[in-house]
Write a structure and sequence with these properties.
InterPro entries: AAA+_ATPase, ABC_transporter-like_ATP-bd, ABC_transporter-like_CS, ABC_transpr_LolD-like, Cell_div_FtsE, MacB-like_ATP-bd, P-loop_NTPase
Radius of gyration: 17 Å
Membrane topology: Peripheral membrane protein
Strand order of the largest sheet: 6-7-8-3-9-10
Number of helices: 7
Distance between the termini: 17 Å
Pfam families: ABC_tran
Subunit structure: Homodimer. Forms a membrane-associated complex with FtsX.
Helix content: 25-40%
Bound molecules: adenosine-5'-triphosphate
GO molecular function, one term: ATP hydrolysis activity
Largest sheet: 6 strands, mixed
Mean pLDDT: 91
Structural class: alpha/beta
Length: 219
Amino acid sequence: MIQFENVGLRYGMGPEVLRDMSFDIPKHSFQFLTGPSGAGKTTLLRLMLMALTPTRGLIRLFDRDIAVIPHRELPMLRRRVGIVFQDFRLLDHMTTYENVALPLRVRGKEEVSYRNDVIELLKWVGLGERLHVRPPVLSGGEKQRAAIARALIDQPEVLLADEPTGNVDPPMARRILSLFVELNRLGTAVVIATHDIALMDRYDARRMILTDGRLEIHE
Ligand SMILES: Nc1ncnc2c1ncn2[C@@H]1O[C@H](COP(=O)(O)OP(=O)(O)OP(=O)(O)O)[C@@H](O)[C@H]1O
């Protein structure tokens, strides 16, 4: 689903932040991406999302070499990837409901076709009472759950989540994780970047560990 072959990345003229990355994110798989702060987790997720171009090596997304994908096809491919950003990136002038519905609206879907799905999903992440408020009045954990709902609403084939439990207490972190596990059971491949060792220890999942720009994988 996502393949890296000898990928390296440097920002500008700086040192190589990631070196010799070779790995595969298989269909339906579930993995944690971990490593110390500054190890390159966000950078690696941005490469997977095609938000960054590698300095060297080959990246394939859905069996396509990303270096030669025509520009006009990028939005369609990106739509198959759900992403939860570390800083949420919700739109402050829209309600929670509108933020989550946005990917579907952008695709030209009629509201009657998705209204119930959006409400159901928001209830599922515990935001059933917060549908009509705007992000500035949501707590950090609520924003995080709204961002997760937005990433899930279009049923992505792969979900990339950057510290999705960074702003919530341990019970909510476990709830969010069980949401990802359920999503994975339904077929979505999941990659979760996290520092939270206690949370990872609760799951017998693959671990991708970044240290000093190199990757080690524990199956
Ligand atoms: N836009 C940028 N320009 C230059 N250097 C950058 C840029 N973004 C990240 N870096 C550097 O790349 C390295 C990896 O950063 P990255 O944010 O990917 O790490 P991380 O593992 O996600 O960290 P954290 O756990 O703190 O979020 C760091 O040394 C960082 O300073």
